[in-house]
Amino acid sequence: MDTTRMEALLGALAVLGLLVLMVLPAVIGIVHDRRIDRQLKQAEAGRTTAPGGRDVPAAPARTTRDATPSRAPRDVTSSHTPRGATSHRTTRAA
Description:
two-stranded antiparallel ribbon; 3 helices; mainly alpha; single chain
């Protein structure tokens, strides 16, 4: 290969590389939008129609996390506050 052909090949590769760099973000965005559209269609398919014609979400699938009992809420008055000071939640409630 002589120098002229090598320069032409390198120029063509450089232009092709710049084209790929410019088109790649658009392609990634299209793929991302299609994935979101697919998720929205799946969510719409998971909805049921109520007798009044309103859309009602289908019952969620139970997970092992749902089956475990939740802990009772903490008592906000027993937090570690200095003597004489009250919690901001207690102050607002009073």
